[in-house]
Amino acid sequence: MKLSADSFPKVVHPLFRFFHVDFDPQRPPSNIEVVLASVVAIVGSLVADWLLVVAGTRVFPSIKGYGHFQFSDYSKLTVIGVVIACIGWPIVARVSSKARYLFTQMAVVVTIVLLAPDYYIWYQGAPTKAIFVLVLMHLAIALVTYFSLVVLAPVRRRRGPAR
User: Fold this and answer.
1) What count of other Cβ atoms lies within 10 Å of the Cβ of residue 126?
2) Does the structure show a pLDDT above 60 at 163?
3) 27 forms bridges with which residues in the sheet?
4) Are 151 and 41 in contact (CB under 8 A)?
5) pLDDT tens profile 133-156
């Protein structure tokens, strides 16, 4: 049984059209490609985080020792977020003929939402310079993860006629 938009209530059809959820995918990435891209995304994101913490604490010595800059603190959250994105990419690739477009929109929205905790801890009195570095870390994670997935585990054009 092939899933289609008609399998869902009509009320969601406009949303499906808007987000290009058409259940008519191109060729999704292979599982091997997704695993490789996921490993690259995790390692690359952790390296980017570490580099930003090192650079941030050198540029702003007053934030050295800030609790959220401990590897054990940011690495857990980074890995969880990247793994969720890496699970999402092949799902998006299987439900949309414009998977990269949809995934880009999702990445932007999720990144903005994930900045909310940074705003909250800043509002609670955390140093502005530390929050600046945390925001850069979020942006770096988003970029590393997005490009790892769409480049190393790309969606390809279908071979032959559509089914």
Assistant:
1) 18
2) no
3) 156
4) no
5) 999 999 999 999 999 999 999 999
Reading the block at residue 123, the tokens are: 């509002």
**Is residue 86 left, alpha or beta, with left meaning phi > 0 and alpha meaning psi from -120 to 50?**
alpha
Residues near 131 by Cβ (< 8 Å), separated by ≥ 6?
Answer: 118, 119, 121, 122
SS3 84: helix
Per-residue pLDDT tens over the stretch 16-62: 888 888 888 889 999 999 999 999 999 999 999 999 999 999 999 99
Do 37 and 155 touch, CB atoms closer than 8 A? no
DSSP 32-85: HHHHHHHHHHHHHHHHHHHHHHHHHHHH-GGGTT-GGGSHHHHHHHHHHHHHHH
Asked whether residue 162 carries a pLDDT value surpassing 90, the answer given is no
Structure-token pair, residue 30: 């292979």
The contacts of residue 53 (CB under 8 Å, 6+ apart) are: 69, 74, 133, 137
CA distances from 152 to 26, 33, 39, 96, 155 (A): 16, 6, 11, 19, 10
